[in-house]
Design goal:
Radius of gyration: 16 Å
CATH architecture: 3-Layer(aba) Sandwich
CATH topology: Rossmann fold
Distance between the termini: 14 Å
Bound molecules: flavin mononucleotide
CATH class: Alpha Beta
Shape: globular
Strand content: 15-25%
Number of helices: 7
Number of domains: 1
Helix content: 40-55%
Structural class: alpha/beta
Largest sheet: 6 strands, parallel
Length: 189
């Protein structure tokens, strides 16, 4: 059975810089023999967490929407790629809703003592920011680090590209495109 990679496109801008890099990583993973499930978060019906507290008691989210499909993939995939732009030092609201809904998984693991996944996996973060500087990716990295740790996933060195703003501008960065493909491959090996 081919390993399953979950590829999460976190930008609301379709075919923008992060999705272009994500598609390269997907191509690399497929070349290495993986099957890939790509999710476009902004096109999914994923409501934000309401902090209702139900998951703290049951481990299950009280909201019924497409997050149910995401939970299933998060718990069964062998590796995960998250591609996200930097939005105000953080991640876009659509992706943040998905991240916050992982509170139900946190509750299962940390409150109810359940093990979430059968095996450890690998994770890759891809991010692009329009500006530069030492703090550009700090918020994004911290948030995603928590999710990868929750899922028992070991992180590969992230692909972080700064000072790329216009839609499709990343196509001029052949080194980043190449690296994304290589990292996608590495995720499977
Ligand atoms: C709402 C919004 C907030 C942004 N905030 C930041 C920011 O805090 N720092 C930064 O470097 N770039 C910021 N950017 C620029 C994006 O990170 C940049 O355009 C990136 O290339 C977008 O990737 P995408 O094409 O995959 O959406 C912001 C863009 C938008 C639309």
């Amino acid at each position: 059975m081919k390993p399953l990679i979950l590829a999460i496109a976190g930008s609301p801008r379709r075919h923008g810089n992060t999705e272009i890099l994500l598609d390269q990583a997907i191509a690399g993973a497929e070349e290495a023999g993986a099957r890939v499930e790509k999710l476009i978060v902004a096109e999914m019906n994923i409501a934000p967490c309401t902090s209702c507290g139900v998951c703290l008691e049951t481990g299950l989210c009280s909201i019924r929407d497409e997050m149910e499909e995401v939970y299933r993939h998060l718990l069964t995939c062998q590796a995960i790629i998250v591609a996200t732009p930097v939005f105000f030092y953080g991640i876009p609201a659509q992706l943040k809703a998905l991240v916050d809904r992982c509170q139900a998984l946190w509750a299962r693991k940390e409150r109810l003592g359940e093990s979430l996944r059968e095996e450890r996996g690998h994770a890759l973060l891809i991010s692009v920011g329009g500006t530069g500087g030492s703090k550009v990716f700090t918020g994004v990295r911290l948030t995603m680090e928590l999710i990868f740790r929750l899922l028992d996933m070991e992180e590969l060195p992230p692909l972080l590209v700064e000072r790329v703003d216009e839609k499709g501008e990343i196509l001029k960065h052949s080194d980043s495109l190449k690296l994304a493909r290589e990292l996608g491959k590495k995720l499977v090996e």
